[in-house]
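Hey team,

Filing this mostly as a record. A colleague (T.K.) asked me to run one chain through the structure pipeline before their review meeting, and I want the input and output archived in the tracker in case anyone asks later how it was produced. No errors, nothing strange. Just documentation.

Input sequence:
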Amino acid sequence: MPAYEKLISGFLEYQKRTVDADPSLFARLAVGQTPKCMVIACCDSRVDPAILANAAPGELFILRNVANLVPPCEPDDHFHGTSAALEFAVNSLRVEYIVVMGHAGCGGVRSLMTNDPDIAAVNPFIHGWMRIAEPARERTLAMAADQPLDHQVDFCEREVIKVSLRNLLTFPCIAHGVKLGRLRLRGLYFDIASATLFQYRDETDQFEPLG
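Output structure:
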């Protein structure tokens, strides 16, 4: 079955199954959304936060971009999709958690670590976007310069999560919410091969497996 037809078929199956289980679900969702958790994840097709969390519609406010990156707060007249989503989640939805979810095998992080000049020529938007993660690359080279590339990419994927967590605190509305205790930040890392989720512990600066 062609990819688009499979998408439509999948929706119709989902629609029937969901409505049969709870006929009033979408009527309730049409009134508005009240998610308590925002997840910032990569747009990689293998890492869907809603599927991994077994979440129902309306449970998670999800933002997906290349390499689950949060840029620093930069109030100017440029276009800021990620910042706009953060602003809406915190100021309008009043989420209680913001979770940055990274993953193994991230193509954006690999391009950052290889520093391939072809990336800049063929994919200039990706090249420019990944500059946000330069502190992660620098720390990786400082800590794992003698390691093979695959190990460096693995190390850097975790460092990128920490960069995004730090950049979240450059947004005044987020820093204020954290200070008041009404907003909490979390970091997660998903290892695809083992289907294991790791949680970042700020006190140890380590990612520990869950479950």
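Quick notes for T.K.: The longest helix spans residues 149-168. DSSP finds ten helices and six strands in the chain.
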